[in-house]
Write a structure and sequence with these properties.
Blueprint (H helix, E strand, L loop, with lengths): L2 H26 L8 H27 L2 H6 L2 H24 L3 H12 L5 H12 L8 H34 L6 H10 L28 H16 L4 H22 L8 H14 L1 H7 L7 H11 L2 H12 L11 H28 L7 H9 L8 H9 L3 H30 L1
């Protein structure tokens, strides 16, 4: 296909996203106030707990098999590389623009975490549905695109709530009862109030999230005991047994203190359930297909999941309203983040994906290669808005960054998608 034809194919889905996003912004303005603050919180809760996990579960269950899981093993590595390289680029932005300490985690998070959820699951299937798409039969392409994008959404959710969450947390102001706030946020992700972050009596320590430091003397005694038992390796079987018991005791203490709820988000749980149904033949025969005994369950889940895409896109537009009043602040950092995510990172992604293909790590599949490349060219993850609300730091700045990056992404994602399609064909 000619470059202009590829450009039109790439433009259509991005234009659809832009139009729905604009509608969300209009519905959020004070004159209409249809998507006001309360409505956005309720819809965000529905997306988080209902729409997103059902979409991921139904898409993975219908399209993923054991064979395809083996074939798609490089995607988690690719997403991890986008986060690590984005963090390095974020450090460069922090140094060059002299970002204040309390916003450094936000800048790093925006450079590291891309919108691996709703944008790929909108753009990639929409490209397949365009007449003259370069990826072959429309039905087969759409089915595979949903599977690839759903896996991207599930993996992205895990990385965001484990990797990007900690980036923001480590640089956030000292917060009282951090673990309690995190636990409450999982029950209702939009219920965080500023009062939770205005009592800095307990310090954030930089430990893995969910780990709460109690009595200092007690923790120091644990460390001393662990060091003593670790170094006494010359006391025969009794010493080795004691050392093993101490190591197990320390591991159990760590496991109890780590809040795994924040890692196993609803989307992640939906992905696990979908993978189990898709991979296990007995479950697949029972639930998937026209001849399945419980096909009504599958159809119901699919119907609920279809609501995810338009609602998430409307919320992106509605949330951008927060940034309109504060556009002049941190201008240099916003420009830096936009350049890194829209120009530098997508270019680096070309070298990584093409290098993996040359080394034989990726089997030839133009649609799969296109998604891997697209993962480097996405604007920051919308989940960062929830994370900044969790810590009560940088909420306004986060909205400004979202406004700037998503405005530029309307052009950059179209151009990079055109180039990527030309590259993989």
């Amino acid at each position: 296909m000619e470059f202009w034809d590829l450009f039109l194919v790439a433009l259509m889905p991005v234009l659809k996203v832009l139009l729905i996003t604009a509608l969300g912004t209009i519905l959020a303005i004070d004159r209409f106030n249809i998507l006001g603050e309360t409505a956005r919180k309720n819809l965000n809760t529905m997306v988080y707990f209902v729409f997103s996990p059902t979409l991921v579960c139904s898409s993975l269950a219908e399209t993923i098999t054991l064979r395809s899981v083996v074939r798609l093993w490089f995607m988690p590595v690719n997403i991890l590389l986008t986060f690590v390289i984005g963090t390095v680029l974020g450090l460069l932005v922090v140094k060059l623009t002299r970002v204040p300490n309390h916003l450094q985690g936000l800048v790093l998070g925006c450079c590291a975490a891309g919108n691996l959820g709703n944008l790929p699951i909108i753009i990639v299937p929409a490209v397949c549905k365009q007449s003259g798409n370069p990826f072959g039969d429309v039905n087969v392409c759409t089915k595979n695109a949903l599977a690839y994008a759903s896996l991207s959404m599930a993996l992205g959710s895990v990385y965001i709530w484990s990797y990007a969450y900690n980036l923001v947390r480590l640089y956030a102001p000292k917060i009282c009862n951090e673990a309690k706030i995190a636990e409450n946020s999982m029950e209702n992700p939009m219920s965080i109030t500023k009062t939770d972050a205005e009592n800095p009596s307990t310090c954030s320590t930089g430990l893995p999230f969910g780990i709460v430091v109690g009595d200092k003397s007690q923790s120091q005694d644990h460390v001393k005991n662990f060091e003593i038992h670790s170094t006494n390796s010359d006391h025969g079987k009794t010493g080795e047994a004691q050392k093993g018991e101490m190591i197990m005791k320390q591991l159990k203490t760590l496991v109890k203190k780590i809040n795994l709820k924040i890692l196993f988000t609803p989307s992640t749980i939906g992905a696990i359930v979908g993978l189990i149904i898709g991979v296990v033949p007995q479950f697949r025969k029972l639930l998937i297909g026209d001849k399945a005994s419980l096909r009504a369950v599958e159809d119901s889940v699919i119907m609920v999941g279809y609501a995810c895409i338009p609602v998430m896109t409307l919320l992106v537009g509605a949330n951008l309203m927060k940034g309109l009043n504060e556009f002049g602040k941190q201008f240099a950092a916003i420009v830096g983040i936009t350049m890194m995510r829209c120009i530098v990172l997508p270019g680096i992604g070309v070298g990584i994906v093409k290098g993996a293909i040359r080394l034989g790590l990726i089997r030839p599949d133009p649609l799969y290669e296109f998604l891997l490349l697209l993962q480097f060219a996405l604007p920051p993850a919308v989940s960062l808005s929830t994370i900044t609300q969790l810590f009560g730091a940088g909420e306004g700045e986060c909205s400004v960054i979202m406004l700037a990056t998503y405005s530029c992404a309307a052009v950059s994602v179209t151009l990079w998608s055109t180039f990527y399609m030309w590259l993989v064909l």
